[in-house]
Amino acid sequence: MAAPALEPWLAAAPRKRSSAARRPRRKGVAAARCPEADGEADDRVTLRRIQEAREDLLVSDFWSSALETITACLTKHLELKATKETLSEALGNLHLDSPGDESAVSTGSVPGKTLVVGNCPLKCVCYGLGNFATCVIARSQLTFLLLFMDKFQIPRSHCWVYDPQFSQLETAVLRSLGVTVLGENEEGKRSICGEPTVFFMLHCGTALYNNLLWSNWSIEALSKMVIIGNSFSGLKERLLTRILKENYTYIAKILEGLEELEFPQASQYADVFNDTSVHWFPVQKLKQLPAEIWAFQEEPDYQDCEDLEIIRNKARQPRT
C-alpha cells in the first residue's frame, strides 16, 4: 500500500529507549467510551483523524489555557530573562542552577565557561499513550504532545514513545510522524543521562512514576526533568500514607521537593486531561531535603503491591 499523503503539519521530520507501561484500567475505561473503538482504521484514516483532532484542539479554550499553565511553570522554573532568552532556548539549559553558575557546566564544555544555549537539546518521552487509532481520547493526547513539541521547538527526532499495546498500524503512523517508537518495555526505568527531558505521562500507573524517579534519583537529574502527568498531590490524597511509603517510596520522598500546577478543566476534554498537572523539581527545594533521602536507592520490586497498574516486562522480572 502506498504511503499516505500527509498534511504539512503531519509531515515527518528528518529521522536522525526505558519504556513504560500504561495504566490499563484508566485507559481501558476510556477506550470503551470511544465511538471508534470497534471500527477499522488504516494509516490514511488515522492521520486524517489526527489532523482533525489538531484543528479541534487549536480552536479550543483548553489549548490556550493549558499552554499558559505550562509556560507559567517553565518560566518560574527557569527564571527566564524575557528579553534575553526564549522558553525553547532556556529549556535546553535546565541543567544550570542559574545563568552564571560555572559549577553546573556540562561534560564537554570549555572549563570556566557556562554552557552555550542549544548544546544540550531538550528531549521528550511519552509513556502510556494508548490506542490512538481507535480511541479519540488517546488521539487527543497524541495531538497535544505534537503541538507541545511544535510550540516549544522540540524536534520530533528528540521524542521517544512507548505503549505495550500499540498496534502495528499505530507504530507505523508514529514513525511516519517522525517520533521514535521504543521496542522494549523498561517499565519507565529510564535515566535521562544528563539531558533535560520532558516526560508526557497522562493516566499512567503510579508505579511508572515511582520507577522514573528511582532511575533519576539525584538532585542533578531531577532538576532537569519536567513531568506532565497524574497529579502527585492527588496521589497523596488518594493513597493511604502507609501504601504510598511502602509501595511508592520515591514518590513519597519527593513530595516536599517538587512544585506542580494543575491543568485547566474543560468539559470538552474532561476525560482526556483530568487529574493532570505539570511537575518540576527546583534545585533549591531538592537541596533542602535531608541527605539520607538521596542515600536510599533500592530498586522498586512491588512484590507485595496489590492492584499494580502497569504492564510488567516479564523478561525483566527475577525468577522465583
What's a quick, concise take on this entry?
Helix content is 37%, strand content 10%. The protein has helices at 24-33, 43-58, 61-78, 87-91, 136-151, 168-176, 206-215, 219-222, 232-238, 241-247, 249-254, 283-288, 291-295; strands spanning 123-127, 159-162, 180-181, 197-201, 225-230, 259-262, 276-280. Strand 1 (123-127), helix 5 (136-151) and strand 2 (159-162) form a beta-alpha-beta unit.
Gyration radius (Cα, Å) is 19 Å
Amino- and carboxy-terminal Cα gap = 47 Å
Unreliable stretches covering 5 or more consecutive residues: 1-6, 12-33, 80-84, 95-119
Q: What is the total domain count? A: 1
What is the structural class? alpha/beta
Shape: globular
Q: Tally the helices: what do you get?
A: 13
The percent of residues in helical segments reads: 25-40%
Note the beta-strand portion: 5-15%
Please, what is the average pLDDT? 78
- What does the main sheet amount to? 7 strands, mixed
